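[job 0412] stage=fold_complex status=start
inputs:
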Amino acid sequence: MRRQSYILLLAGLAGISACKPDADFRTPAANYTPERPAHFPPAHYTHDKNKYSQAGFELGRKLFFDPILSANNTISCGSCHKQEHAFADVNIRLSKGIDGKTGIRHTPAIFNMAWNTSFMWDGGVNQIEVMPLTPLTNKVEMAETISNIVYKLNRHKEYPTLFKNVFHRDSIDDQQMFWALAQYMSNLVSASSKYDDVYTGKTTYTKDQQDGYNLFKQNCSACHTEPLLTDYSFKNNGLDYQFTDSGRYRITRREEDWGAFKVPTLRNIAVTSPYMHDGRFTTLEQVLHHYADSVKQTPSLSPLLVKNGKPGLHLTADEQRKIILFLRTLTDTKFLTKAGLTE
Amino acid sequence: MKTTLSKYSLILAATAILGLDSCKRDKDPEPGPIVPVYGSVNGKINYVFGADMVPWQLNKLYVHPKTGDSLTFTNFRFFISNFKLKKADGTWWTQPESYYLIDAKTAAESSFSIPNVPEGEYTAVEYTMGIDSLHNVSGAQTGALTLSSGMFWDWNSGYIMLKAEGDSPNSSTGKFALHLGGFSGTNNIVTVRTAEFGKTVKVTNGTTPTMTFTVNPARLWHTSPGLATISVIHMPGAEAVTMAKDFYNNVTLSSVQ
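[job 0412] stage=fold_complex status=done
writing structure:
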C-alpha cells in the first residue's frame, strides 16, 4: 500500500508538471494595463502580440537609456530624448549623433506614441515597433547594426535574465528588443496638463487663456485636432519657397506632398523648442509670427493656411499673444517630472 | 495507519487523474477518427541566366543578352512566401507563417523545407514572390522576417523583397544596387504564382518530394533599360514594379520529384 501511494504521488506530480503551458504563451508575471486616458480616443497601437507588462516597460526603459545600442557604446536614445523636454532634445536645432555628427531634422518629442499612425517627420515609418530601426542604424545617429546589438545584449551580464523574465525565450532576438522598446515608448503618456483638466471639466481657463483657446479653435485645430492636438496628417505649412528637404514627398512621390511634414502635437509645445522639422524657430512668438504673416505661397501649401485669398492666418499681435497663453496650458508638468520614466 | 495511507492514495490517484485529464484538454486538438500524419516538402532554387539559360552564380561575369551590360552580381537575395499545396481532391493546404529568404550565396540558403504537410497526394503549388502587405505593416517579426537581415527599409517601412547588387562597367558608378519592394497601390510588386505538377505527388512521413524553381536574374532587365539609365533603385515605384514583375512572372516550377 505504501509503495502504491508513492507511485500515485509520482504520477500526480508528473501530471501536474506536464500541465505547464509552453513558455511562449505564458502570461506576463506582472499584469499591467498600459495608461490609456479616458478622454483620449482608442490607441492605434494595441499590444496585440507584444503583451504589455511592467517588467517589459522597465526593460524598454533600460534599453532606451543604455548606450550599448550605439556602435561605439557612447550614446543612447535618451541622449537626445530627455524627459524634462517631453523626450525631445535640449534646445538644440539638430541633435548630435555618433561622433558629434548631425542629421537634417530636429529631434521630435516622444509621448502619446501609441496614438501615432506613422512615425518620423515624413511619416516613412509605419509601426512603433520598427520605429527605432532608423535611429539605431542611421550612420549619423547610433550607427549600429541590429545583429550586433542582439549579439551584445546576449553577452551582457543582466539582459539575458531581464529578457527571459519578460518574453520567456531561450535567447534574446531583435523582435524582443523592438518589443521592449515599444512597451516603453507607447506608454509615455502625457494627459495631465491644465488643458486636460479644462477638457475634462475639472478647472477653467483664465480670460486670456480662454480667448487664446477660442482663437486656436478658429485657426489651428483643423490640423492640431483635439484632444491629441494633431490629426497625424502631413502639411506644407509655408516655411519656404524652395524646399531643401522634400519632406513627405520623399516617401510618396506625390507633388501635393512636396515640403509637407507631419503635423506635430502641440502638447508640451512650450518645452520642446526649437520648432519645425528643421528647428528653425526658437520661440513660440516666432512660430505665431510665421503663421500670422510669413506663410509662403507654393503649389503644395495647405489651403488651410490661406485666408481671404492671401497666405497666412493674419493674426494680430494680441491674438498671437493669447494663442501662446493657451499653448502654455498644454505643458504637462506632471509628465515632465513623473518618477519612473527615466532610467 | 493503513487506512490513512489508503486515503492519501485515493487523493493522490484523483490528483493524478485530474492532472492528466486537464493536460489532455490543454494540449490535444479535438480527437477525431483520423490521426493526421505529416510529411514535408522541400524547395530548391535553380539559377540560370538569359534566354540560353546558362547556369548562373554570384561573382561571375555575365553579359546581358538584351542590354549588353556586363554584370557581376555580388549579392542576390529574395523572399518567397505563402506556400499552398493543392490536394488531389481539389482542396488547398496552406502553410502557416510561410516566409523564406533565399540567398544565392550558398546552396543551403537557396533551398528550404516546408514542414508539417499533411500526408496525401498533391497536384499543384501556389506561392508568393515577395511579402504580403499585412506583414509589411506588422512591426517586429522573427525568422525570415527579422529586421536584422538588412531586407527592411528603415526610413520607408517595408520589406526589400528582392535585392540585386554587383559591379558593372556600364554603370556610371561601376556598381548597381537594385532594392525592389512595394506592397500597396500602384507600387505593389507582390506576385502570386501557381504551378501545376502535371502529375500526382505523394507526401508521406517518409516521402519528401523536392520542388525545384528556376529563376533567371537576367529577366530583371527584360523590359527595363540597362545600367546606364537605371543602376540604383532604393524605394518602391514604377521602376521597381517593372523590374520585379518581369523577374517574378518568369519564375517557373521546373521539376517536382
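[job 0412] summary: The first strand of chain B starts at residue 38 and ends at 49.
[job 0412] exit 0
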